[in-house]
UniProtKB/TrEMBL annotation:
Cofactor annotation: pyridoxal 5'-phosphate
Any Gene Ontology CC annotation: mitochondrion
Keywords, comma-separated and alphabetical: Aminotransferase, Pyridoxal phosphate, Transferase
Keyword Translocase attached: no
Lineage: Eukaryota, Fungi, Dikarya, Ascomycota, Pezizomycotina
Residues spanning the signal sequence: none
Gene3D superfamilies found in the cross-reference section: Aspartate Aminotransferase, domain 1, Type I PLP-dependent aspartate aminotransferase-like (Major domain)
Alphabetical list of InterPro entries matching this protein: 4NH2But_aminotransferase_euk, Aminotrans_3, Aminotrans_3_PPA_site, PyrdxlP-dep_Trfase, PyrdxlP-dep_Trfase_major, PyrdxlP-dep_Trfase_small
Reactions catalysed, as given in the entry: 4-aminobutanoate + 2-oxoglutarate = succinate semialdehyde + L-glutamate
Record-level Gene Ontology MF annotations: 4-aminobutyrate:2-oxoglutarate transaminase activity; pyridoxal phosphate binding
A UniProt-annotated Pfam family: Aminotran_3
Organism: Hortaea werneckii (Black yeast)
Protein name, as recorded: 4-aminobutyrate aminotransferase
Amino acid sequence: MAFSLRTATRLQPALRIASMRSSRPAMRFMASQTSSKQATGAATASPTMSDAIEQPFFPDEPTGPMVRTAIPGPESKKAIAHLDQVFDTRSLNMMANYQNSFGNYLADLDGNVLLDVYAQIASIPVGYSNPSLLLAATSPDMASALINRPALGNFPQHDWAEILETGMLKVAPPGMNQVFTAQSGSDANELAYKAAFMWKRMQERGGDADFTAEEIASSMNNQTPGAPNMSILSFKTGFHGRLFGSLSTTRSKPIHKLDIPAFDWPQATFPMLKYPLEQHAEENAREEQRCLEEVESLLTGYHNKPAAVVVEPIQSEGGDNHATPAFFKGLREVTRKHNVLLIVDEVQTGVGATGKFWAHEHWNLQDPPDMVTFSKKAQTAGYYFGNPELKPNKPYRQFNTWM
């Protein structure tokens, strides 16, 4: 997806003109009819102010919702019944028709069109059938990326550095200049946790020392010292994913965790602020201080020592819970005091959702987080970091096929 983001950036101005000058029906088929040469040539065009006023960016976007049947309607019910024979449909909300979905509106098979404020669990940042992305899909870069998907750790393509520099790293959080890519938000957090554990053990060894024979042998039996008893501290009602490590830090809903073995990792209380904020300032400050003291107690006293603290800028899935910048500044101070990493989970809050590209930028930290994880609206996933010591000391320690 990084390839498509870079291509879309290059083609966006031209696409805006093309979409404005085309008729509404033709727009639906632009992607299939545009040749690679046209896409490349269009990238050199530039819009004018008069063009910008002519037509909306999404010429096919409905003017409002339209409900023609009960939801699900008869056609959707047929499709759901068919899908249920081969796929678990019990969490299904709506059977979508993406070919008829434009801008902020999601269509179903029965002609119903709804204003979508859910955005595919916060993962569609620029609307359905986005004209720039439709045009980008016709580019040689996109075709090559889809047909020749590389095992990035072993066979990155020749311009992978440029793709990272002009894509993910162009919007890197302050203080971060490196990225490790992943496949999903859960995966991004899982990899950040692994980086924290490897960093912590390197610190305990006094640097980049070779593994001992005992460490090597015991790791294969899931025993110490090769598989050390460390932990990640998370917060009650937080959500960080559904893989084994990330699920152990998820505390939002029992349905995610039931029947799944979990690591013995600590949890601290996230501040529960009272509103209106201006009427409870002193009380809320005491609540945040109490939570910070609890964090510090766990960092120093928990039997499986934390290598990192993971926190969401806004607890999203766990209930829309907020804290003030003062709390997060205190969290950065206490983690730094005890040589514990701070991981900020921006999977849900990142990419512009709060008025800044990264929600933690509102905290105005002088000392940035150690890692920032991302996914969803970014259309890719991974974690940012700046400290070169967070890069594992040997190859294949942080690795998967597609990275």
